[in-house]
Amino acid sequence: MSKTLIIGAGGVGRVTTFKCAQHPGVFSEILLASRTKSKCDIIAKDAIAATGHQHISTAAIDAEDVPALIKLIRSFQPKMVINVALPYQDLTMMDACLETGTHYLDTANYEPKEEAKFEYSWQWAYQGRFKEAGLIAVLGCGFDPGVTGVFTARAAKHHFDEMHYLDIVDCNAGDHGKAFATNFNPEINIREITQKGKYWENGQWIETKPFEIGKKINYPGIGARQSYLLNHEELESLVKNYPTIKRARFWMTFGEEYLTHLRVIQNIGMAGIEPVMYQGMEIVPLNFLKTVLPNPGDLGENYTGQTSIGCRIKGVKGGKERTYYIWNNCSHQAAFDETGAQGVSYTTGVPAMTGAMMVLTGQWSGTGVFNVEEFDPDPFLRKLRANGLEWEEEFGLDLEM
Ligand code: NDP
Q: Can you give the C-alpha Rg of the chain in angstroms?
């Protein structure tokens, strides 16, 4: 029985709140706080109606204001903060957790607003302080990063003596009927995918131009989809935690229509993160673009199709080479029917709740800052399956990689 503070009231915040509310035995009291309190109120009302949870309250918070966060945490006294706001707020929330003796979990690693660059160094630097405080910080516990790390940990624990090649493959074969929309926060999403590609090979990082490397990959239940090599944050921790990996890559599907829109957005300067003057006021073009794009949290209603995300691994077991594929397919419609949010929010919010449940029930323990692959994958994957994200695995197949 624990009090939990969820920060962020977008699509992921909605799913996380619903899923926590389904487990009142673990999440006995929930406070949902975000910049805009009215959004928290709508989610709380819907979650109470759907689950019957009796103790969900809401609050307004600017999660970049550490004293305000400390005040909110001290007044509610949660055991854990689940950060499903934006990566810009990771460090301020970690500071507030340290100050108040509260565990921390997020789904995306820190990036500074003024530079489109994500890496773990800023958050790994909190290792000593979380250890000293006897607290746990779980980094990147969505789907990717998140479940992809746990899938890799399962492969290492049960199926390989050494893993050599890791390809994380992420397909969204859904159709939301809009000309252009992103599936999570547009600003964070566009910053991520317009960066250079990057992968790990033979002990070093290799950079590519954005979308330089692409190929068709077959996804279970979906078929062949054009997929592009991207830089993705979990690669950094996975090659560190599994040093036998010779090559690690991340692939994501993009349709022609999406890429054409993205090219235009970039060519006309709307993906820019440097402030420009507009009618006497400073605005950041990408911030402005977010305000006119569809809200990812509202895409669910007519969203058809499914996502398919997994890890394709080659390595050795008992002296013999083997291949292994572990994946989840998630239906946008089923996610919407249960929570009112689409599949990408669902595949992020369910693992966030599951990771928090692992910590609050003592199944993931320790002190310090952890990436998810450092914990026991088994209890997490059992609960993930029980909470709507079924996963499957297959051996000895052609990985196509
Ligand atoms: P949204 O933009 O829909 O929601 C973000 C929420 O955070 C909004 O409610 C927003 O408030 C709130 N917020 C923003 N700034 C502040 C602030 N300073 N203080 C308090 N609240 C703030 O994003 P999503 O729900 O789509 O995504 C949430 C997070 O999940 C992101 O960090 C994203 O990177 C991550 N993610 C991770 C994935 C994974 O697999 N690991 C996949 C998808 C997403 P307001 O409503 O006022 O704007």
A: 20
- List pLDDT tens digits, range 4-62: 999 999 999 999 999 999 999 999 999 999 999 999 999 999 999 999 999 999 999 99
Strand order in the sheet with 368-371: 56-60, 27-34, 2-7, 80-83, 103-106, 136-139, 368-371
Give every CB contact of residue 201 below 8 A, 6+ residues apart in sequence: 246, 247
For ligand 1, say whether the CB of 348 is within 6 Å of any of its atoms: yes
**Are residues 195 and 333 located together in one domain of the fold?**
yes
- pLDDT level of residue 116 (50, 70, 90 thresholds): confident
Q: Are residues 116 and 17 in the same domain?
A: yes
Beta bridge partners of 208: 197
Ligand 1 atom closest to Cα of residue 186: 2
Same domain, 123 and 206: no
Residue 39 near ligand 1, beta carbon < 6 Å: yes
Q: Say yes or no: 171 and 90 in one domain.
A: no
CATH label of the domain that carries residue 157: 3.30.360.10
Rounded mean pLDDT of 134-162? Answer: 98
What DSSP string describes 316-338? Answer: EETTEEEEEEEEEEEEHHHHHHH
Domain count, the chain: 2
Choose one of 139, 155, 182: the last residue of a domain. 139
Answer yes or no: is the C-beta of 328 below 6 A from any ligand 1 atom.
Answer: no
| pLDDT > 90? residue 188 | no
- Shared domain check, 290 and 169: yes
User: Is the same domain home to 171 and 222?
Assistant: yes
> Tokens in use for 212?
């330089």
Q: Does residue 344 fall inside a structural domain?
A: no
Q: CATH number of the domain at 91, please.
A: 3.40.50.720
The answer as to whether 383 is a domain residue is no
Q: For 76-90, how does the pLDDT look when each residue is reduced to its tens digit (9 = 90+)?
A: 999 999 999 999 999
Q: Residue 297 pLDDT > 90, yes or no?
A: no
Ligand 1 touching residue 13 (CB < 6 A): yes
In this predicted structure, what is the pLDDT of residue 280? 95
What distance in angstroms lies between residue 189's CA and the mean position of ligand 1's atoms? 11
- Phi/psi at 222 (nearest 5 deg)? -125, -50
Please answer whether residues 22 and 47 qualify as being in contact, where contact means their C-beta atoms are separated by less than 8 angstroms: no
Closest C-alpha residue for ligand 1 atom 32: 86
Residues 160 and 308 in one domain: yes
Q: How far is the CA of 295 from the centre of ligand 1 (A)?
A: 11
Residue 355 included in any domain: no
Nearest CA to ligand 1 atom 13: 85
The CB of 108 under 6 Å from ligand 1? The reply is: yes
The mean pLDDT of 191-219, rounded to a whole number, is 95
Give the number of the atom of ligand 1 that is nearest the alpha carbon of residue 144: 40
Is this structure's pTM higher than 0.85?
yes
Say if ligand 1 is within 6 A of residue 86 CB.
yes
